[in-house]
Structure formats: C-alpha cells, structure tokens
Amino acid sequence: QIGTTVNVQMDIFGDLGAEDDNDFLDLFKLKLLGLNDFPFENGWISNWFKEEKKTLNDLPMVKGISVNTVSGNEHTISRIIKNYDPDIESMEGAAFFYCCRKQSVPCLQIRAVSNYVEKRDKSKWNNNVAIASLNDTAIKLIGELLQEQMDSSK
Predict the structure, then answer these.
(1) What is the pLDDT of residues 47-83, one digit of tens each?
(2) 8 Å CB contact between 141 and 53
(3) Alpha carbon distance 48, 87 (integer Å)
C-alpha cells in the first residue's frame, strides 16, 4: 500500500541483460554469472544482516527488484512479474546490497512506497505520505538504538 514502509530482504538486478525478441535474458541466463556466484543466492542478493529490533520486526519483509528504467508499461511490468515476482521496485537497492555484501558491511534497506508500479501516472504518486512514513520509521529505529545504548551504559 502507498505509505507502507518495508524492510527489503533480497533484491535482484531486473533489467541487466539482453532482450531476445520478446524474451529477456538476465546475466544468469546469458551464462555470464552463476546463480550462486558470490554474493548471489539463486540469482538474488540477500541481506545477511539480521538485526532484532522491534521497529524492524514490525515492518513487512519484502523482496525488491532494481531497474535502470522505472517500469511504466504493461509489457515490461508483466515480464518483470513473470520473471521475478517482486514486491517493490527501485533503482538502486540491488547495487546497495551488492556493495555491502562484497565488503561484508552490515546494512538495512528500508523503503517507503510512494506509488504503484503501473502505467506511469504521477498524479497517483504520494511522495509526502511515503516520506512521512519513512521518517517515522527512522525516528523509531534511532530511538530504539539510542535507548539500547543508554541501557547498556548503565
């Protein structure tokens, strides 16, 4: 739903590859990478960092897809759903996970939904609600972390 803040657990590069008429061949189908070549697991990059925080546990856990061109037509959207069935779409999530995994840096990918993936119609977007939701989550998480710090220093 628009305004929902989510915790991305895995991400994939959704348009990195080649078109073969109406088919899409990703790096794995092209045999340029193995499905389980580090940091991939069955083609996905998972967030291995698990932080037990109430704020994070309250968020829906989702799988994302990262694209270079935001999806805005039925053909592209159908192809992505058929190939990957993601919950959310972004432009940088998989690259973020990739870099963090390669460097063994713990990370979180927290996102708020501003619009649905559909034929492009900016009048349906609600960035203000998404930003407010993300800010509320960030404030709760920072408060939780600060409280833990204060409790551990006693």
Answers:
(1) 988 888 999 999 999 999 999 988 888 989 999 999 9
(2) yes
(3) 19
C-beta separation of 6 from 113 below 8 A: yes
Question: How far separated are the first and last CA of the chain, in Å rounded?
Answer: 41
Q: What letter represents residue 78's amino acid? A: S
Scanning the structure block, which residue is given the tokens 């919950």?
87
For tokens 């710090």, name the residue. Answer: 149
C-alpha torsion 60→61→65→69, nearest 10: 30
* pTM tops 0.85: yes
> Which residues lie below 8 Å from residue 100, measured CB to CB, with a gap of 6+?
49, 106, 107
Which alpha helices (DSSP H) does the chain contain, by range? 54-57, 74-84, 93-102, 127-152
Please give the angle made by the CA atoms of 79, 9 and 1, to the nearest 5 degrees: 65
131/114 Cα distance (integer angstroms): 8
| Tens of pLDDT, residues 86-107 | 999 999 999 999 999 999 999 9
